Amino acid sequence: MPRPYVITISSEKGGVGKTTLATNLAVYLKALCEDLPVTLLSFDNHFTVDRMFRLSADQTESHVGHLFSEENILTLIRQGEYGVQIIPSCHNLNSFKPQAPNDEQLAEVLSKVNHDGIIIIDTCPILDPYTRNALYAADRVIVPIKDAPSLANCQHLADFFTDHGISRSPLRLLPCLIDSRIRYSGPFRNSYQLLKAYAINRGYRCLEGFIAKSPKVESLATNPEGKVYSVLTHGRSTEVHLQFSHIARQIYLEYLEKGPHRMSEVSEEQRSRTQKLANREQERHQRLLDHCLCCGQQLDQSLLQKAFYAETSGRELCGFIEENCFYQMIFSDLYGEQKLGLSTATRELFRESAQRSYFLMQRQENSKIMLVRLDENGETLSQRTSDIKSRGLLRRSTPFLHNLLEHSFAENDQKNLLLLRQNTGVNGRILTEAPYARFQTVFSRARLDYEPSEDIADSTLNNPVFP
Ligand SMILES: Nc1ncnc2c1ncn2[C@@H]1O[C@H](COP(=O)(O)OP(=O)(O)OP(=O)(O)O)[C@@H](O)[C@H]1O
Ligand SMILES: [Mg+2]
């Protein structure tokens, strides 16, 4: 499947020439190879890309923000001037998409798209989630540096790669806006040589050459037509024209030589992540007992749909309790339904709220059982301790609970906790990654709140801290 080669232009310093480089690089690459698809997009809100390349007013509402939704991104691409394709910019990405994408999202979208050629991404001067996405997806990151502060800022970009455990080899620095009138005595004769020496000294790699500061180039963005003109068409007399040609040729040769390797890496990462998740889910399934923990009946798929999943704090026990058995155990064994005479409405209310709750059970001294109802965050909603001995802990009088206790807690084991949750997670499968992770989060919280520590348990054996 053809994959795109992604070039991200990034620097945390504003006004270093990112947009000028991104837009002109697109034009020069296209001029170098007419058949090469070149697509340009910007996560900045200056609309330079649109002003420079848009052929006609676009009636559709599509823009770069839609790259993060499930849409087929090929529908976002518009044909623009100079043969360059663009994806329209967005006025305010943060208000369009209040929930910031995670750093891998764009790479995952691009790795699945059937699109070849080069994609150039212009970014804004902050390491916001959109810049981070553009960095994560990049085969090549070009960082314009114009002075010592912009060079110092490169450290954050390098850290980004280290933090994500990926190689920082895509990074290349490029001295930009170099004023050739400035001369130094000594080994480094101008600011280009000085910046390059500083960069190499700090362990960065640079593209060959630099981009000079030119009044002509600066003027290309300001004219009565409100257009932004390219250096190739309107600044051929400048040295910047030669410099952009040189940079574009380097990039094109690299593209031919290495190809779009980042997207293949991302696909491979995704494949192994999916495999890891599947293995973890399989391990959870292997730990399961195959029968209902309360009545011993084999559980088929239809019963599992609404069964309650139960796990002890040490994972000695993992299994399901049939829905009816669970309610019988609560109403009859623990609440003593006959004695209390629970109304149908109370039971219905309980059933309804049980779908959104977790239940924690703990065996306490003198055959007391504590039942705590927790919300989705593990916050205690209600708590009740039942004295089973007073009802006689007999198979006959509390059969469901009796069976469960036999499975889960050793006699007098006050440390172990049992957490239960109805199997209504994503797709009704609590053992899949996200619902199971939530289950574990709630369990950790419950342990902090209810698991007695060694010292407390020993010293308060006859005086429970958690009545
Ligand atoms: N080679 C050049 N010679 C002279 N002026 C230039 C050159 N390159 C860019 N400029 C001018 O410098 C200013 C900043 O350039 P540009 O917008 O490309 O920087 P940027 O890094 O994208 O800025 P921002 O961080 O604000 O997005 C613009 O006015 C642009 O016209
Ligand atoms: Mg810019």
3D architecture notes:
The strands form two sheets. A seven-stranded mixed β-sheet has the order 3-4-2-5-1-6-7, with helices on both faces. Strands 9-8-13-10-11-12 form a six-stranded antiparallel β-sheet. With 467 residues, it is an alpha/beta fold. It has helices spanning 18-32, 48-53, 93-96, 105-112, 129-136, 148-152, 154-163, 191-201, 215-219, 231-234, 239-258, 261-287, 301-304, 323-334, 337-340, 344-354, 399-408, 433-450, 454-459, and strands at 5-9, 38-42, 78-79, 85-86, 118-122, 140-145, 171-175, 308-312, 318-321, 358-364, 368-374, 380-387, 417-422. It contains 19 helices and 13 strands. The chain has two domains: 5-270, P-loop containing nucleotide triphosphate hydrolases (Rossmann fold, 3-Layer(aba) Sandwich), CATH 3.40.50; 288-459, no CATH class. Helix 1 (18-32) packs across helix 11 (239-258) and helix 4 packs across helix 12 (261-287). It starts with a strand and ends in an 8-residue tail after the last helix. Strand 10 (358-364) and strand 11 form a beta hairpin. Magnesium ion binds at residues 18-19, 44, 46, 122.
